[in-house]
Amino acid sequence: MKVGIIGCGRIAFEAHIPAYKKYNVEVVGVCDLIEDRAKKAAEELGISFYCMDARELAEYSEVELIDIATPPYGRRDLLKTLYKSNKPMLIQKPLSYDLDEAKEICKEIKNNKIIAAVNHNARWAPVSVKIKELLQEKELGEIYQIHHINRFNENLKSWYTDVNNYIFLDHGLHYFDLIRLFSDKTPIQVSAISRNVPGQLAKCELLYTVNFKFDNLLVVSLYFNNLVPAPYAFDCQWFIDGTKASIKATLDSISIQRFSGEDVPMTKVEGDWVPEGFLGAYEALVHAIKTKKIPPHSPEDHLETLKMAIAAAKSASSGGKWVDIN
Ligand SMILES: NC(=O)c1ccc[n+]([C@@H]2O[C@H](COP(=O)([O-])OP(=O)(O)OC[C@H]3O[C@@H](n4cnc5c(N)ncnc54)[C@H](O)[C@@H]3O)[C@@H](O)[C@H]2O)c1
After folding, report:
1. How far apart are CA 8 and CA 140, in angstroms?
2. Residue 240 CB coordination number (10 Å)
3. Burial annotation 267-290 (CB, 10 A radius, 16+ → b, else e)
4. What is the pLDDT of residue 155?
5. Given 3-state DSSP classes, what are the helix, strand and coil percentages for the chain, each rounded to the nearest 5?
6. Are 79 and 108 in contact (CB under 8 A)?
7. pLDDT digits (tens, 9 = 90+) for 18-37
8. In angstroms, rounded to a whole number, what is the distance separating the alpha carbons of residues 42 and 49?
């Protein structure tokens, strides 16, 4: 389906545009409030249609699917101007930093009969896809523990690091979402702690530890240090333990250790969040439209992940008390 992009900022240039270019998805128009950005995106894509008014982009007859890469603030009002076009939408996560507002957005999308999905691209990163396949094939038996370690660096001044609880509500949202993907469940309670580091540039907390409780034996813990010296100290590791085997995975590799001894050593997995994860989120929406099914990353599904993040932020503000996820 032919795409029109609204919002030509950081993520559009780093991920949306490279993914569409690499995999020959036709982008027919772009829009940004700032003319230079829209013009630059059009040049990058080799197209002529660019504009500064989102409604104009949505109503452009060539556009079949609207890809929204604007920040969460102002998003509800922006969406309201687009519903009249009746075109499907792929919306960047999170829908909102506020759960009530996100619920209202979901209702409005439904009332306007719009087919929409939220860009949970990490689900389609090739390593995530491989882990999910192994879990579906019951390679691990019953899963009893998931542990995630993330080490990155966003110690900077920006609109997003100015957001209170950014580490839970925006960046960490990906890892919470993968917990739902891997476990096929939404946890019932969370206990979280977040911290600033003395002298940091970012306004938001850059460290978290999070524990999720489920209604079965599964135990989940996540650690995030978003201020390690870059880039040599970056890391992303998953440990998933089941009654038959364990998985260890990074962003681009996976190994399996079996009690039977038939191990699979660390093996490289081709592809990454960008561009493959972004292409996957787009393709899953197109597939849902063509097969008339609800997209797996529907706004309602996104709410389940957002609830985990909002509850984690609430727990952190109470010093780590267990908080219900609902
Ligand atoms: N999925 C991921 O991996 C991932 C990674 C980073 C950011 N994001 C998300 O992507 C979104 C955008 O983040 P970003 O860092 O690219 O922001 P950004 O500020 O760099 O870019 C956003 C662009 O949208 C434009 N814009 C805002 N409102 C607009 C409107 N009404 N009409 C047209 N243009 C408008 C701005 O002018 C800006 O150029 C956020 O929701 C963020 O959380 C997702």
Report:
1. 42
2. 23
3. eebebebbbbbbbbbbebbbebbe
4. 97
5. 40, 25, 40
6. yes
7. 999 999 999 999 999 999 99
8. 7
Gap from CA of 320 to ligand 1 centroid (Å)? 31
Residue 326, pLDDT > 90, answer no
Q: Which domains, and CATH codes, for the chain?
A: 3-114 (3.40.50.720), 123-270+306-324 (3.30.360.10)
Nearest CA, atom 37, ligand 1: 33
pLDDT of res. 3:
98
Q: Could you tell me what percent of the chain has a pLDDT over 90?
A: 96
pLDDT at 230: 82
Residue 261, judged by CB atoms within 10 A of its CB (0-12, 13-18, 19+), counts as exposed
How many helices (H) and strands (E) would you count in the chain?
11, 15
Residue 124 is predicted with a pLDDT of 98
Those residues with Cβ within 8 angstroms of residue 36's Cβ, 6 or more apart along the chain or in another chain: none
307/284 Cα distance (integer angstroms)? 23
Measured CA to CA, the distance from residue 305 to residue 36 in angstroms comes to 35
Mean pLDDT over residues 165-169, rounded?
98
- Out of 6, 13, 59, 92, mutate this one to test ligand 1's pocket (max ligand atoms within 8 Å of CB): namely 92
Which residues face 116 on adjacent strands?
89
Taking the centre of ligand 1 as the mean of its atom positions, its distance from the CA of residue 161, in whole angstroms, is: 13
The β-bridge relationship of strands 264-268 and 219-225 is: unpaired
Residue that is written with structure tokens 């920006």 in the block? 158
